[in-house]
Structures are given as structure tokens and as C-alpha cells.
Design a protein that fits this description.
The chain has 482 residues and is of the alpha/beta class. It has 15 helices and 22 strands. Strands 1, 2, 3, 4, 5, 6 and 7 form a seven-stranded mixed beta sheet that branches. It has a five-stranded mixed barrel with strand order 18-19-20-22-21. The protein has a three-stranded parallel beta sheet with strand order 8-11-14, sandwiched between helices. β6, α5 (132-140) and β7 form a beta-alpha-beta unit. α9 (253-263) packs parallel to α10 and α13 (350-363) packs parallel to α15 (391-414). It starts with 11 loop residues before the first strand and ends with a strand.
């Protein structure tokens, strides 16, 4: 399944086709969520037009950029180790190398990186990538450079992202930036700013370019895609002050999703991430109506305890979440639901933990992303709540959540036995050169004998066996999506 934070992709150095006229070399690594990897494609596009070709050889780079994540302490520690590596190369092998930090850590630790620790030459926040050429000019003239100003309207809708290390089949298309949901554990509203949406026509144009170059699947991407709202530009929170005409001609997520589905009937459409309080019933009916919209909703809940949900400022209760799950099951019976879960949030008791386990047992998620709570400086929880659950207790509760999810994942894959499912072939199977691997509409990986089929084709597969995370089957011919 496509992870929110896909461990195998962490730290990838990104490569694009070189331009003969470019004379400088860029080494760029990305960590964190899909949005960070998407942003790195925007950065590479901007710098490609400003004399930089990419390289995978750190030692020869003129400019080293690391796109950072602040969501977990582990991620920050990894990035600090990489910065130590870059500076060692700079000191010992390549003194002309410039080092820069992009993304969420850039905004949060700007002063520390530049002035106190002096480990980077430039710091660039998520809304300032267009300013990179100016910032690099500052660095070349011998000054440190910084721009972490958060924008009310920057969506990079006018930048055509370079597709980096892509399989040529699936691509991310950003539709919103920032977030207005002030969850107490989360840094995103502070590092990426308030929520704003991208102009619909630019989204359709980007998808058209992907379709024209052979892509078969796109994921509409945002911190909170269900809150998509275009009314001519500006922050979502300012919509109430918009003109009557702007309100009457506005486009919400259900309308955008339907437009994409109708415009590209042979392209598979995914979206991520959803928030329970913002997912409205019209979106569910659109998903059910169009076969090319994938039947998979990633619906983070974080906890099954009402008391903890309130402490997290999640803006929904356990019962409201169950009501939404029931609607999904009723309107889209074959829909997979996946989760994010935090173990050991401040003040969490054994009863709170049991409430989480019972919620999981009620929903039986297809898959989940589960973490022990990690205090993030700058968040409301970091400022006002004591991280009072012992690490051993967090680890034990997390393991119990993981074990239960493994049972539920097995239950969900077994439901597909003897069924025929549509699979988009993405790559060769990791375990056999004689098998293809691809995902179902529900985002479950399927492996099957290659026969005469090719990457990028939609194939109907009869499922004959499964593990808790993978389906196995035999091809029954091409699907109607080809």
C-alpha cells in the first residue's frame, strides 16, 4: 500500500534529465510525507531553469538540499545526521558546496540552523521555493539566506513539476496547501500555514500533461483534501467574506473530484489525506458513482477515546466517526478504510488505550500507520501538555495496536479470495522476476504471473491466495480501463 510516509523512499536522491546548457549540480534528498516529495519536484523544476542539473553523487554537488519533515522526532534526528554528513563532505572534499534546508524543519528551526549551529547556508520554507534563485544569489555573494514566510495564496499552480524517480505510471498532484485543523500534536499549521486551494483549471492542465505522457493514475494530494475550496484564491477561512459571485461560482472537493473523473475516464484517481470532520456525504456519492475513482479512503482517527480526541482537538467524537464509517460502508460497500493511530498521547490511560482497540475492532481497517507519540516543539501539546506516558508503556500499547491491525489486515485481504479484481501493473514483483505487482482500487498490492502483460496495463486478476498485506492471483484478461 502507498504509505503516507513510505519508509523505502526516505532519503531518496532525486534525478531528472540533464539540460546541456546547465553548468551546476544539485543533490536533493527528501524525507517525510508525500507532500514533501511532491514539493521536491517543484524545487527541481525551478532550479532546472536556473542552471542546475541533478546528481546522485553528493561529493560533486554545488548545491545540496534536504527536504525535511518535523512530524516525528526520529525524522528530525535522521535529517540532523544527514546534515552532519553534508558538512563533513563540505569541510573535507568540496569547500565550495552550499547546503540548504527546505520544508517543515526549515520553518521551525531556522534560527538554530543558520545562526546558532551554522550548519547550513540557506533555509527555505514550503511557500518560498520560487524565491530560491534570489536566495542562492545571496549565498553566492557570501551571505546566509532565509525565507520562511508563509503565504496566503501560494499553491505552485503555475509550476509544472518535474517527475522525479517516477515509475511513469502514478503521480501526485497537489490541490491544497496548509491546514486549518489545529490538532494539538501536529506541526503542519505552523510549518505550512493556513489552508488554501489551487485553481481547478491548473489542476486539470497538470493531469492532462500526465495523461498525455502515459500516466495511468494520479493522487490528488493535500494535508486535508476534503477541505478543498476554490473561490478565486485566498485562504479557506476567508471564504465567508467573499463576494456573492465568488461563493456562487466556488468549487468544492466533490465537484473537483467529479470533474477529474469525467475529464479522464480511463485514468485511475486516488486522493489523500482526509479528515473525519471534513469528509462530507456528497464526496462518498461521487466515489461510488465513478469506477475510475479508487475505493479507498485514508481516514486518520488517531485515538478511539473521546477524552483523548478532545485533548488532540480532533473536532469529532468516537460516535461521529462510527457514523461516518457506517455511511462509507453503506454508500461504497467495497471501500477500504485505512488509519493513522497514535499510542501514548499525554494523559492516555489503559482505558483510553482499550477504547482505541475497541474502535479498531469495530472498523477493522484494511491497513494502518501507527506510531508512538513523539512530542513536537511548537505544537499545543508540546507547549501545554506533559509527555507523561512512560516509553515502555507507549511501546507496549503500540505493539498491541500493530498486532491487532495485522489481524484485521488479514481479515480484509481474505475477503478478496475467489474474487476478480482490477489491478494496475506498476512494477516487477520484489520476490520474483516472473511476476508483476500492482494495486487494486482498494490500494492492496497484488502479485501474479507476468504472461504477456506490461507495466501500465489494467488487468483483471482472480485472487487465489493472500497474506495479511498482499493478494496473489491469476490474470483473467484486460479490464475495461485499458
Amino acid at each position: 500500500m502507498e504509505k503516507t510516509i513510505e519508509e523505502s523512499k526516505q532519503g531518496e536522491s532525486l534525478v531528472l534529465e540533464n539540460k546541456a546548457q546547465n553548468s551546476k549540480k544539485l543533490f536533493i534528498e527528501s524525507y517525510g510525507c508525500a507532500m514533501n516529495f511532491s514539493d521536491s519536484e517543484v524545487v527541481a523544476s525551478i532550479l532546472s531553469d536556473n542552471n542546475y542539473n541533478t546528481t546522485t553523487i553528493l561529493e560533486e554537488a554545488d548545491l545540496v538540499l534536504i527536504n525535511t519533515c518535523s512530524i516525528r522526532d526520529k525524522a528530525e534526528q535522521t535529517i540532523r545526521k544527514r546534515l552532519e554528513k553534508y558538512n563533513a563532505v563540505k569541510r573535507d572534499l568540496n569547500p565550495k558546496m552550499k547546503v540548504g534546508v527546505l520544508g517543515c524543519m526549515a520553518e521551525r528551526l531556522k534560527t538554530q540552523f543558520l545562526e546558532e549551529e551554522k550548519i547550513v547556508d540557506l533555509v527555505v520554507g514550503p511557500d518560498a521555493y520560487k524565491d530560491l534563485p534570489n536566495l542562492l544569489a545571496e549565498v553566492e555573494s557570501g551571505h546566509d539566506a532565509i525565507n520562511v514566510i508563509l503565504s496566503k495564496d501560494e499553491t505552485y499552480g503555475d509550476i509544472s513539476p518535474v517527475r522525479l524517480n517516477s515509475n511513469g505510471i502514478s503521480a501526485f498532484v497537489s490541490i491544497t496547501r496548509g491546514c486549518d485543523n489545529m490538532c494539538t500534536f501536529c506541526v503542519v499549521p505552523f510549518t505550512r500555514g493556513r489552508e488554501r486551494s489551487r485553481e481547478p483549471e491548473s489542476i486539470i492542465t497538470e493531469i492532462q500533461k500526465l495523461w498525455d505522457t502515459g500516466y495511468k493514475e494520479i493522487t490528488l494530494l493535500g494535508q486535508n483534501v476534503d477541505s478543498y475550496l476554490w473561490y478565486g484564491g485566498g485562504l479557506k477561512k476567508d471564504f465567508d467574506n467573499a463576494s456573492d459571485f465568488a461563493k456562487a461560482t466556488s468549487v468544492d472537493f466533490a465537484q473537483l473530484l467529479e470533474t477529474v473523473a469525467v475529464t479522464f475516464p480511463k485514468m485511475r484517481i486516488r486522493f489523500s489525506t482526509s479528515n473525519p470532520q471534513d469528509m462530507h456525504e456528497p464526496v462518498l456519492h461521487i466515489i461510488a458513482k465513478y469506477d475510475n475513482i479508487c475505493k479507498h479512503i485514508h481516514l486518520p482517527v488517531q485515538s478511539g477515546s473521546d477524552r483523548i480526541l478532545k485533548a488532540m482537538n480532533r473536532l469529532h467524537t468516537r460516535e461521529e466517526y462510527f457514523t461516518l464509517i457506517d455511511k462509507i460502508r453503506s454508500i461504497i460497500p467495497n471501500c477500504a478504510v485505512t488509519q493513522d493511530m497514535i499510542a501514548g498521547f499525554p494523559t492516555e490511560t489503559e482505558q483510553d488505550h482499550k477504547d482505541t482497540m475497541s474502535l479498531m475492532s469495530h472498523v477493522k481497517y484494511s491497513f494502518g500507520y501507527m506510531y508512538a507519540y513523539s512530542e513536537r516543539p511548537g505544537t499545543m501539546a508540546g507547549r501545554k501538555m506533559e509527555d507523561d506516558v512512560p516509553e515502555l508503556t507507549k511501546s507496549r500499547r503500540l505493539q498491541e495496536i500493530v498486532d491487532l491491525q495485522r489481524e484485521h489486515s488479514a481479515f480484509r485481504t481474505q475477503e478478496f479470495l475467489n474474487q476478480t479484481v482490477e489491478v494496475l501493473i506498476e512494477k516487477e514483483s520484489k520476490r520474483s522476476t516472473n511476476e508483476w505487482a500492482g494495486r487494486t482500487s482498494q490500494s492492496i498490492m497484488v502479485v501474479f504471473p507476468k504472461e504477456h502483460y506490461k507495466v501500465g496495463e489494467f488487468v483483471n486478476i482472480k485472487i487465489t491466495d493472500c497474506t495479511s498485506g498482499t493478494l496473489k492471483g491469476i490474470a483473467q484478461g484486460y479490464s475495461e480501463m485499458n
